[in-house]
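Sequence, please.
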């Protein structure tokens, strides 16, 4: 079987078709699945290509219902299960994890797609900065709490299978000085900086978490991170994101996309790398890989997002923040 040839214009459905045998029969959980986003498109494609179960996760029940109904209208046989989870609340993370653990199915793939957009400094009820907790601390805790469900996927089939955890990161890691551990543990509004800078710091954490998850699980879980591309979703229309897009010359003063900017992807194109990270069998022996345009792109990682020592430090600090050890 030849390796599929992908590019920046490849769509999620094209990737799903290429790896349909890998998608078929899998149980997948994906966060951030509102209609009009890349998480929804990835969920739709996985259902279309024969996933056994797709758990769509979000904090808004109405948006989850719309997402479920939209997929089922196209694919009546799809097994879609909504799950309420507010990633800005660790109590909500624990509640959602308990619901997942009560389900009978193992989880072959978990995709951390949801994220808090760039914004001003804001503390959550857990006294954590909202972007840090939504984009890293909550996914860390959630993964820890449902780890047994993920590991169970190794033993439910007669064929040896290594479950996957996928993190939708971004090229913002290239524009960030890296993790500020003091700020992560003791949030200070004076050190927050621009909202876009805080967002980029969390994108570094996504990549580092993937690297360390592979190391600590000792081959039991394969984790990957990725840059989906620049896609004009609702996420990109938030105030701080809009300001950044203007600075980069990607939208005009009215917030309209500048069509000549050749970096833009459509939503189907933006979801493609997520599907590749979740199912491309050529990644089986490449744990911790960072992907762009559906292929490995570790050369794009800057030193502070590929340093194993920093990845280990982030794990230890995050354990301290949640007050629990994450061991295998």
């Amino acid at each position: 079987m030849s390796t599929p040839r992908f590019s920046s214009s490849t769509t999620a459905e094209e990737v799903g078709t290429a790896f349909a045998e890998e998608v078929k029969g899998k149980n997948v959980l994906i966060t951030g699945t509102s209609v009009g986003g890349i998480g929804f498109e990835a969920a739709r494609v996985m259902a279309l290509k024969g996933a056994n179960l797709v758990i769509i996760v979000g904090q808004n029940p109405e948006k989850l219902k719309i997402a479920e109904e939209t997929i089922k209208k196209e694919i009546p046989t799809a097994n879609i299960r909504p799950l309420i989870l507010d990633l800005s609340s660790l109590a909500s993370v624990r509640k959602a994890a308990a619901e997942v653990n009560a389900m009978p199915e193992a989880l072959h793939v978990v995709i951390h797609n949801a994220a808090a957009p760039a914004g001003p400094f804001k503390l959550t009820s857990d006294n954590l900065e909202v972007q840090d907790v939504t984009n890293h601390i909550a996914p860390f805790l959630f993964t820890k709490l449902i780890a047994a469900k993920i590991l169970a996927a190794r033993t439910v089939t007669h064929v040896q299978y290594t479950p996957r955890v996928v993190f939708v990161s971004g090229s913002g890691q290239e524009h960030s000085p890296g993790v500020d551990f003091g700020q992560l543990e003791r949030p200070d509004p004076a050190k927050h900086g621009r909202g876009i800078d805080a967002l980029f710091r969390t994108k570094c954490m996504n990549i580092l978490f993937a690297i360390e998850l592979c190391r600590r699980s000792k081959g039991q879980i394969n984790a990957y991170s990725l840059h989906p591309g620049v896609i004009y979703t609702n996420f990109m229309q938030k105030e701080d994101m809009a300001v950044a897009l203007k600075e980069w010359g990607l939208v005009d003063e009215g917030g309209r996309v500048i069509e000549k900017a050749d970096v833009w992807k459509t939503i189907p194109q933006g979801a493609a790398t997520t599907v590749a990270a979740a199912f491309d069998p050529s990644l089986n022996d490449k744990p911790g890989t960072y992907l762009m345009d559906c292929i490995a792109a570790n050369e794009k990682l800057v030193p502070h997002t590929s340093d194993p020592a920093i990845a280990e430090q982030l794990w230890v600090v995050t354990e301290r923040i949640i007050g629990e050890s994450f061991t295998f």
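The longest helix spans residues 195-217.
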